[in-house]
Design brief:
By secondary structure, the protein is mainly alpha-helical. It has two helices and no strands. The two termini are about 40 Å apart.
């Protein structure tokens, strides 16, 4: 699996988690019991946090790939050496 495939999978998983979190938020509004309401809100917050972590991981991999692609092979962080 390539980095692009992995990043895409992470973003899809984040989207799914956010959809499920939305379900928990909606069902929390409809809960008649304060204990159930609170548990659903906590679960939604946890799912949102997991989705944000997946997106951050996806973004960091993309940024690393772009940063790595911009440098010549075998170079350090500095400018490439000029041959005499």
């Amino acid at each position: 699996m390539t980095t692009i495939d992995t990043d895409y999978a992470r973003l899809e998983a984040a989207l799914s988690l956010r959809e499920i979190a939305g379900y928990y938020l909606k069902s929390a509004e409809e809960a008649g019991n304060p204990t159930v309401w609170e548990a659903r809100l906590r679960r939604a917050a946890k799912l949102e946090k997991e989705a944000a972590a997946l997106e951050a991981a996806s973004n960091s991999h993309g940024a690393q790939a772009e940063k790595g692609a911009a440098r010549p092979v075998g170079s350090s962080d500095g400018p490439p050496a000029i041959a005499p």
